[in-house]
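Prompt: I keep going back and forth on a fold encoding question. Comparing notes only helps if you start from a blank page. Show me how you would write down a chain together with its backbone fold. Please set it down just below, with no commentary around it:
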Amino acid sequence: MIVYTDSIEFADSLFSNGRATWGPATFTEATRLLGHQLFGDQPVSCRELDPVEPFTILFATKTASQSQYDILTGLGGAGTALPGAVLCLAGSGRGFHGQRGRPWSASEGNVHLSAHFTLPVSAHTTVPDFTALAAVSVVDTIDGIDDLHGRAGIKWVNDILIDGAKVCGILAGTDTSGAHVSRAVIGIGLNVENVPTIAPTPFVPKVAALRTFTSDAACNRAHVLTSLLAILGRNYLTLIGSNPTSLVDRYRDRSLIIGSHVTICADSSDDQPVVLASGRAEALGDQLELYIGGVKQPFAHGRVILDPRR
C-alpha cells in the first residue's frame, strides 16, 4: 500500500512498517485529482507500506481543510475514476460532519477515516450493508483492546456506544449503475485519545473516547488505526464474497436497542425532537429497518432516543 502525506512526521507517528524511504509524490492519472483536492498546493511525500488488502492507497492529511468523505463522495458522483479501494485519513480538520450534516469535532488523537470502494459487478450490496461494514469493523477493533472486549454496542443506525456514551459515528453512501452498486464511501469518526467538547442532546446525552474506559497501552491512535484498517479490509472482502449477510447478522448481535424501549424521531430532528413512534424495539430487518412493537411499518430512517428507565 502506498501512503501519500503532507506531513511525514504525522504519517510516521501512525505507520512504522514502511518498506522504503520517503520521496516526492508522483501521482497517477487516477490519483492526481484526488490528491489535489486533499492536499491543495502543499508538498506531498510518499512511500510504500506493508499490504493491507484490499487497499492500495492511503492519503494521510495532518489537518484537513474539509471533509474527506465529502471529497470522495463528490468525485465519485461526478464520474471521476478513483482507485478501487482507497483510504483517506486526517489527524484533525474542519468541516467534518455526521448524518444530515451535523457537525463532528475532528480532534487530534482520534481516528478520522474515509474509504472509497469500486465494487465488482458480482457484488450484491446496499447502503445498509456498508453501514454494517463500518459499524461491525469498529466494534471488532474495540473488542481487540483487552479492557474493552464485548463492551461496545451499536445504537441504530450509526452510533457506537460504550456504557451509554458515544465513542464513534459512521457514514455510508453508494452510487448505483442500474440495480448494481458501483461505488461506496464510508466515513468513520472514532474518538480514541480525546473526548470532543459537545453539548448533550436527547440523542447523544454523553460522549467519550476509548481512553475514557481503559489505560491499556494498546489504546492509542496508531495501534487502533492499524487494527481498524486490517479488520475493515477483511470485513469488506467478506461483504463482497461468499457470505455477504454475515455483517448484518453481526450488526444485529451487537445492537443496543433490540428489546429496549425507544423513541424514534424524524431524521431532521436536532434539539427539538419530532416524535414518529415510541415503543419496544423488536427487530432489525435485512436492510437494518427497525421494527417497533405496535407500529405496522418498519422505519428505514430516523433518530433514536434510548429510554434507560424501561
The longest helix spans residues 221-239. The chain has two domains: 2-253, 261-306. Helices lie at 8-14, 29-39, 68-77, 127-143, 221-239, 246-253.
